[in-house]
UniProtKB/TrEMBL annotation:
Residues 5-192 form the Prephenate dehydratase domain. Residues 207-285 form the ACT domain. One of its GO terms (biological process) is L-phenylalanine biosynthetic process. Transmembrane segments: none annotated. The record marks 185 as: Essential for prephenate dehydratase activity. The gene is pheA. GO terms for cellular component: cytoplasm. This is Prephenate dehydratase. InterPro entries: ACT-like_dom_sf (IPR045865), ACT_dom (IPR002912), Chor_mutase/pphenate_deHydtase (IPR008242), Preph_deHydtase (IPR001086), Preph_deHydtase_CS (IPR018528). GO terms for molecular function: prephenate dehydratase activity. Pfam families: PDT.
């Protein structure tokens, strides 16, 4: 078998590539840059890649809907690992450009929303020119500079990851561009289902859940499956299923591993109550924070309770 092949949002220098470098260095893996998240995930489904690395959540914008939607339907894939990357941007432009010359800024939509206040304060005239990734405009700028026609570009400056400044040999116009200096983006490595990564004691489980139609309290009943078993949720968001108005799919991250008794019981509860449950994997938490275990919800409590029930069922009510 050759080296593992990773599909990810390119070109070189994206935050996604930085996340990938933390998973597998370029000399032990094949990097397959793609133009969008959907193509990276499709590459795993078609067998063109073994894994995809995709952004799934940011501290500023919440869930990355392209990723959530691509994983919620289609050939099942699972999350194997998560990686957190700090996100700040550098504004780059052709040499000689001054801040006051900048009226059009190229940026990935997720980058733009993470720099809105900075842009309003420093470039009040600037409009957004959407880019397919954080480094796509850097590559265009380099090409245009080499061809001597930077003036024909559809933007005056671009927001790029700081690491891309050196990769593309560009001159920064402004550094540390961010509305939230501690912004993080969470990336996940996804692959075909197989063995579940072993429990570490600080794990996350991701799920997609549909609710029964027209049932008062269905959302509450779904949440209770977690609450009564002491399972904390770290993210829940609704996405339209897409076939009719009012039909929503819930994308959930829960603290714990599928082999934890409380998580297993909660997922069985979802299976009994909800028309559709997709398991998107159990994997180690990047921050290695173990969940708080509430009274009566440790593995031993479930095991003991089951043994007690078995005794009752066997007629031992003493
Ligand atoms: O990986 C990149 O650089 C991207 O352009 C993608 C992406 C994202 O989709 O969230 C990654 C990190 C930042 O949050 C902004 C954009």
């Amino acid at each position: 078998m050759g080296v593992p092949r990773y599909a990810y949002l390119g070109p070189a220098g994206t935050f996604t590539e930085e996340a990938l470098r933390r998973v597998a260095s370029p000399d032990e893996a094949e990097y397959l840059p793609q133009t969008d998240v959907g193509s990276a995930i499709a590459a795993v489904r078609s067998g063109a890649a073994d894994y995809a690395v995709v952004a799934i959540e940011s501290t500023v914008e919440g869930g990355v809907t392209a990723t959530l939607d691509a994983l919620a339907t289609g050939v099942p894939l699972v999350v194997l690992r998560e990686v957190l990357v700090p996100v700040q941007f550098t504004l780059v432009a052709a040499p000689g450009t001054r801040l006051e010359d900048v009226a059009r800024v190229s940026a990935h939509p997720h980058a733009w929303v993470q720099c809105r206040r900075w842009v309003a304060a420093h470039l009040p005239r600037a409009v957004h020119v959407p880019a397919t990734s954080n480094t796509a405009p850097a590559a265009l700028l380099v090409e245009a500079l080499a061809a001597g026609d930077a003036g024909t570009l559809p933007f005056d400056a671009a927001l790029v990851p700081p690491g891309a400044v050196a990769t593309y040999g560009l001159a920064p116009l402004a550094d540390s561009v961010a509305d939230n200096a501690s912004a993080l983006t969470r990336f996940v490595v996804v692959g075909p289902p197989g063995e579940v990564p072993p429990r570490t004691g600080a794990d996350k489980t991701s799920l997609v859940v549909h609710l029964p139609d027209n049932e008062a309290g269905a959302l509450l009943a779904m949440l209770e499956q977690f609450a009564v078993r002491g399972v904390n949720l770290s993210r829940i968001e609704s996405r339209p299923i897409g076939d009719a108005l009012g039909r929503y799919s819930f994308s959930i991250d829960a603290e714990g591993h599928i082999t934890d008794e409380r998580m297993g019981e909660a997922i069985m509860g979802l299976h009994r109550r909800c028309p559709y449950v997709r398991f998107l994997g159990s994997y180690p938490r990047a921050d290695a924070v173990a969940p708080t275990v509430h009274v009566g919800t440790a593995d031993a409590d479930f095991v003991e309770a089951r043994a007690w029930l078995a005794r009752l069922r066997a007629g031992d009510a003493s």
